[in-house]
Fold:
Amino acid sequence: MDISIRNLSKIYKNNYQALSDVNLNIGSGMFGLLGPNGAGKSTLMKILVTLLEPSGGEIMVNNMPLSKHRKEVRSMIGYLPQDFRFFSKLKTYEFLDYAAALAGISNRKQRKEEVERLLEQVGLFEVRNRYANKLSGGMKRRLGIAQAIVGEPKIVIVDEPTTGLDPEERIRFRNILADLSQRDVTIILSTHIVGDISSTCTQMALLNEGKIGFTGSPSDFLQLCQGKVWRTHVRFDQMAAFNQKYPVITTIPDATGYEIELIAPHANDFDGEAIEPNLEHAYVYFIEYEAKKTIENYV
Ligand code: ADP
Structure:
């Protein structure tokens, strides 16, 4: 599967430009689209699933222009929208059975097998007779992914699936996606939660204010801030000045002040030990320095 997004833009009716000249290549495996709230992620996802028309540009899916093959491309896609809802009158099993019928599995026996397999896969078999609207938040999200992957679509698009989940459910959901990525599918995961972008993502992109700021592997992303993450100790009276000048990531108080981790191009005005960056550091580095292009203020 090969998705090529070319010069894509979206201007809403109120003249708000949500996407500007977005270019991305997405192959098989899990692709993480990371960006703060309002970056344009949902807009991009909705265009991909043909719910929204772009204002300019094109998306090619296996060399087919989406604008000319909407139906065909749509049939290859499973989608979990950010505001996923379902009919309250259906039980979990019935809901998935309905989704399977919509996905074109008309043979009842085959549908039963597929639904039971999916219920097992997302850990909902035990609650299959519970009304879908009575499930917990995490279970609802798992039912959401189950309906997105019914009928084995080649492309699975999940928009902010872990928002509002507790850590245990978040991990569970990530594991379902990781499991799915072992198969021959393209998963596009949009998120504002850095922790969702795991080693399972073969490629990722950073979207900020409607523009792609970075695209590459998570380890390339880490490289952005290599040598720019520092651990240092500050006195109580210095803390406010550090907070104002630098993005401070962690703060651990002790008897004389704080041990902090901060991001700065150089340790010019403090005594810092460079530490190994993680994805959260890289994200903050990008948003605070690269995106704002304020790096010269700190050099
Ligand atoms: P994200 O998913 O990254 O949070 P969205 O794609 O939902 O971002 O929104 C991007 C921007 O576009 C936001 O500023 C949002 O307010 C705006 N936006 C979204 N939908 C519409 C719409 N229908 N009309 C006008 N502006 C919109």
Summary: The chain is about 30% helix and 30% strand. The pocket of adenosine-5'-diphosphate is lined by residues 12, 14, 16, 18, 35, 37-43 (CB under 6 Å). Residues 294-299 have pLDDT under 50 and may be disordered.
